[in-house]
Write a structure and sequence with these properties.
This protein has about 120 residues and is mostly helical. It has one domain (about 5-120). Helix content is about 80%, strand content about 0%. It is built from 4 helices and no strands. Helix 1 (about 5-30) runs antiparallel to helix 2 (about 35-60), helix 2 runs antiparallel to helix 3 (about 65-95) and helix 3 (about 65-95) runs antiparallel to helix 4. The chain starts with 6 loop residues before the first helix and ends with a helix.
Length: about 120
């Protein structure tokens, strides 16, 4: 799939869209079950990590499995999760955003953060 100058970022966003969809469906489902929103966000976020690693590795960055890269990938996403939870808490508990809208708002920042760290640290040559 050749998508031009920004192809890698576009591919990352496509994979991210699938991951985000998985995460949002799990998040909404857990909210319906009355799971505490920060716990629901954590579980939902983790649900997308495995899918994200497999497709980032093979489709976006075209790399073979490497244990060190796997650890870096998990590290990036765990740090991203902490940032996600921090801003979600602020939006929901301090600014009174609806829980689902708050989650969508913090997702935008995480896309850029995850791409840059994965491109220049996790999958860097």
């Amino acid at each position: 799939m050749n998508v031009g100058k920004y192809g890698q970022f576009i591919k990352f966003c496509l994979v991210g869209a699938v991951n985000t969809s998985i995460s949002l469906v799990v998040y909404a489902f857990l909210l319906k079950l009355n799971v505490y929103y920060l716990t629901a966000s954590t579980i939902a976020y983790i649900a997308g990590i495995l899918n994200g690693y497999i497709f980032s590795l093979s489709f976006v960055f075209k790399k073979k499995f490497n244990f060190t890269q796997g650890l870096k990938f998990v590290g990036v996403y765990l740090s991203s999760l902490l940032i996600n939870l921090f801003f979600l808490y602020i939006l929901v508990d301090i600014f009174q955003f609806p829980k689902f809208i708050g989650q969508i708002c913090v997702t935008g920042f995480n896309v850029i953060y995850n791409f840059l760290l994965n491109k220049y640290w996790t999958f860097n040559k």
